[in-house]
Design brief:
With about 850 residues, this protein is mainly β. It is about 5% helix and about 50% strand. The strands form six sheets. It has a 24-stranded antiparallel β-barrel. Strands 1, 3, 6, 7, 8, 9, 12, 13 and 14 form a nine-stranded mixed β-sheet that branches.
Length: about 850
């Protein structure tokens, strides 16, 4: 393995420092001039026949980046830019001699499809890293996004702007009217912005740009041309106020209790959002009593591991502008804010970028006390205290965006009471610095993140943190760790450092990272496990010149190694994978992973480390032409280790477009997992010695995701989402640990052929008869895991009407059913009927918001 690592590093080194002295071609920067309108008006109807357009110069000369990098665009594209005191107007004419083949797919706003698109992207900061982008497809669907850090994009950014298109006898045209108040800039007599215009022609797989740069080069925003001619423009009327009203009805048999005599509940609510843009380019967003009732439900999840599940953020307030607040995913996980049963009372954030290249992000949110209802008693229990969450992020650009340096700090402060003091931190703080630097003609980059944490609380709360699944300080074989039951604080540090080659056909990176045992970020971040030092190597060869076999090809090699802070080898392995786009526009790919034997620190849930057997897995996928009205995706994965643990997964996706405004997605998936040592529980014998119990487990999982989108107009749509989910597992062949570091399964575990367990009501304990002689051998306070059958159905029907630009009405119907039993077998017909006879919940919600520009 050491020879393999050395060989890979040598290959990577030669790719970084090629002997040929390669230098990427540099783009030639183009310049466009915006014309100031006097008395001319521009009517936004998609037609470029207004007199104001004729006063401005037309710009053309687009060049392909796909599929033939550097060749002229297939069809001519031209644009003109004019402006007045309030708006920037862009008119784009996309010539197409085959107008019957123009793809004009109608969806709701911000839904990307394989349509004909034109985009304008504005680097109004002129920092080579940030841009505001606006797109229209041939059906008039709007798409806006915010680019950041040169290469990244935030699709959740939304602006209030207008656009229209027209298909004419020579192709199609698009008109954009973008309020200056939606952009971030500093006014002056001679303003210079970065500018890019690009066009997507799906039937040719073509992306054509106005200011071209080679695929050998890195960057996106840094490769823009220049927009001149703007003079003394001010961001007028920068204040938006968006109040909302809401009514909601719930019907659920589960809410009936001694304090709730019927299954109905009705609620109403009012709240609002405020947005104000300051003259220095910063924007304040605030929300009071927010509601996220129209947000799609999380997917079903049945977690048998010792680690918390991760769910993506879907709430608009936290998604928008998250790029500026982001420092590292581990330190800021916005789902911590307002998690049930807590409710967000108010939240606000200040984000933006100043003229000197400093990005600023400040967020504060306050959640009220949350109560858990006791269903069998007319009472509630406080489970979440009044809490304040704070985050501040600063980052500064240097050398035209090629160097950045920044930092972040977060704090969580709780008003604890007797019910919460013993299991929650009173205060939690994290902080860190990060940097990046591109060098050697921007072909290489070094990046680093260094962070630390400090949490405070009552001794029981800190003890609970030390004993949590993220760290398990109580591990008896970890001589460098111990549980301090008197501690009232805990601290830790972590880092990630990488050096990468980011341009050319050969690319790659070498990364080191660490997280000390005391690092605790989960009050506002997300980190499943600490106490690890790791190293990763990635090498890639990419080919984008079309051949007689494919359009694009990517080949990757990966290698990794991990240790804990006690110096023990946790894992080492590697991966090879390949991806290609074929000439028929099908995508195929696959890979092979292998891991050598290591150790597992967490499988015994706080017990000693145990041998982790070698494993390997293979995966592959195929996706047919997504431009077609019917397309199909297939993904398959197979895992096996030397203990004969296997996992097989197959997932399919059927994408159907019966009409240009109707989209159907059916995504069935099946997983079969056969384990030879699945966790059952920990028990103690009469000498109070622990015993770690496992079993064989055969688990099957079946679920289906359904999405139906019907767009009546770009501002009026109906969307339906549903997911039925079924899983069941049956146990067999119970064992307990023996020689923990034995590579042979039969030496590592001893069989429990006569395993039997019963619950003793008098002692409130589970009693284990291991030998089958009728006597109790082990005891445990917690329930051992047995057979299970879990099923869930979640659905959302959303009617969305943007009746005025920025003002929206939602009518939402949500339905859900959940049932869990001890049956270990999956029988679809039986389980399907049983699920929909289980107690369900129906929610009907009407929400109306109105945007006021003051």
């Amino acid at each position: 393995m050491n020879k393999l690592i050395v060989s890979l590093i040598m290959i990577f080194g030669f790719s970084i420092f090629p002997v040929t002295g390669y230098s990427a071609d540099q783009s030639s920067e183009k310049t466009a001039v915006a014309f100031r309108l006097n008395s001319q008006d521009i009517e936004i109807d998609g037609k470029l026949n207004d007199p104001g357009w004729q006063s401005a110069q037309a710009y053309d000369g687009f060049t392909q980046r796909d599929p033939s990098d550097g060749k002229p665009a297939s069809f001519p594209t031209s644009f003109r830019i004019v402006y007045d005191d309030e708006y920037l107007y862009v008119g784009i004419n996309a010539i197409d001699p085959q107008i019957d083949q123009i793809e004009a797919i109608l969806t709701r706003r911000d839904e990307y499809t394989e349509s004909d698109w034109v985009y304008i992207s504005l680097d109004s900061y002129n920092d080579n890293r940030t841009a505001f982008e606006f797109g229209l497809n041939a059906a008039g669907v709007q798409h806006d996004l915010r680019r950041y850090d040169d290469n990244n994009a935030d699709d959740d950014w939304n602006a209030v702007w207008d656009g229209a298109v027209e298909i004419h006898n020579a192709g199609w045209s698009a008109e954009f009217r973008i309020p200056f108040r939606e952009l971030r800039f500093t006014s002056s007599a001679q303003m210079r912005w970065g500018l890019q215009i690009y066009r997507e022609l799906p039937r040719n797989n073509e992306l054509a740009v106005w200011n071209y740069w080679s695929k050998d080069e890195t960057g996106f925003v840094s490769q823009y041309g220049t927009l001149e001619g703007l003079s003394n423009v001010e961001s007028t009327r920068p204040l938006y106020i968006s109040p909302y009203i809401l009514g909601q009805s719930n019907h659920s048999d589960q809410i009936q209790s001694m304090s709730q005599s019927n299954p109905w509940s009705h609620t109403s609510n009012i709240g609002g959002d405020i947005r104000y843009t300051f003259s220095n380019g910063l924007t304040m967003n605030a929300t009071v009593n927010p509601d996220f009732g129209q947000v799609e439900a999380d997917p079903a999840d049945f977690n048998l591991t010792e680690f918390e599940s991760y769910f993506a953020e879907k709430r608009p307030f936290f998604k928008e502008g998250s790029d500026i607040l982001n420092f590292n995913d581990a330190l800021y996980y916005s789902r911590r804010i307002g998690a049930r049963p807590a409710k967000i009372l108010a939240a606000g954030k200040l984000t933006g970028k100043t003229t000197n290249g400093t990005s600023i992000g400040v967020m504060n949110a306050t959640t009220g006390e949350g109560f858990s209802t006791l269903t069998d008693l007319p009472s509630t229990s406080s489970s979440e205290p009044l809490t304040n969450y704070f985050l501040a992020r600063l980052q500064r650009d240097y050398h035209e965006g090629q160097t950045t340096f920044g930092g972040l700090m977060t704090s969580v402060n709780r008003r604890l009471n007797d019910a919460t003091r013993q299991h929650l931190h009173s205060d939690a703080y994290t902080g860190g610095i990060d940097f990046s630097h591109e060098f050697l003609n921007r072909e290489y980059e070094i990046e680093g993140v260094f962070a630390g944490s400090h949490v405070l609380g009552a001794p029981m709360a800190i003890t609970q943190t030390q004993r949590s699944s993220a760290r398990y300080f109580q591990r008896p074989d970890a001589d460098y760790l111990s549980v301090d039951t008197t501690a009232t604080s805990l601290s830790g540090i972590g880092h990630e450092l990488s050096i990468s080659k980011i341009s050319g056909h050969w690319r790659g990176s070498f990364v080191t990272s660490s997280s000390s045992p005391g690092l605790e970020v989960n009050d506002l971040g997300f980190l499943q496990r600490v106490d690890e030092i790791s190293q990763n190597l990635w090498i890639q060869y990419r080919e984008w010149e079309e051949t007689k076999y494919y359009q694009e090809l990517y080949l990757n090699v990966n290698q990794w190694t991990g240790f804990n802070y006690g110096g023990r080898l946790l894992n080492k392995g590697g991966n090879v994978n390949a991806h290609a786009t074929l000439l028929n526009n099908w995508d195929i790919g696959g890979g092979f992973n292998f891991n050598f034997p290591g150790i597992n620190l967490t499988e015994l849930r706080g017990g000693p480390a145990i041998y982790a057997p070698a494993n390997r897995n293979v995966w592959g996928y195929i996706e047919t032409d997504s431009r077609k009205d019917f397309s199909y995706e297939l993904f398959s994965h197979y895992f096996i280790n030397t203990d004969n643990v296997t996992r097989y997964e197959i997932s399919q996706a059927f994408n159907i477009r019966p009409r240009q405004n109707i989209q159907l997605l059916f995504n069935p998936s099946f997983v079969e997992f056969s384990d030879t040592w699945a966790w059952v529980g920990k028990a103690y014998d009469t000498n109070n010695e622990p015993h770690y119990l496992f079993s064989g487990l055969l688990q099957k999982e079946l679920y289906l995701t359904v999405r139906i989108d019907y767009t009546i107009r770009p501002n009026l749509s109906i969307q339906y989402y549903a997911q039925p989910y079924f899983t069941a597992g049956s146990r067999n062949k119970y064992v307990e640990t023996a020689d923990l570091m034995a590579s042979d399964f039969d030496e590592r575990f001893s069989s429990l052929d006569n395993y039997d367990v019963n619950y003793n009501e008098h002692t409130d304990q589970y009693e284990y008869d291991i030998t089958g002689d009728g006597t109790v051998d082990y005891f445990s306070g917690g329930s051992p895991r047995g057979d299970f059958n879990y099923k869930q159905f979640r659905s959302n029907l959303v009617i969305r009407w943007e009746y005025v630009s920025g003002s929206t009405m939602y009518l939402v119907w949500s339905q859900g059913f959940t049932e869990a039993t001890g049956m270990g077998e999956l029988q679809l017909n039986r389980d399907f009927k049983s699920l929909f006879h289980a107690p369900g919940e129906n929610v009907l919600l009407l929400k109306i918001s109105y945007l006021m520009n003051v």
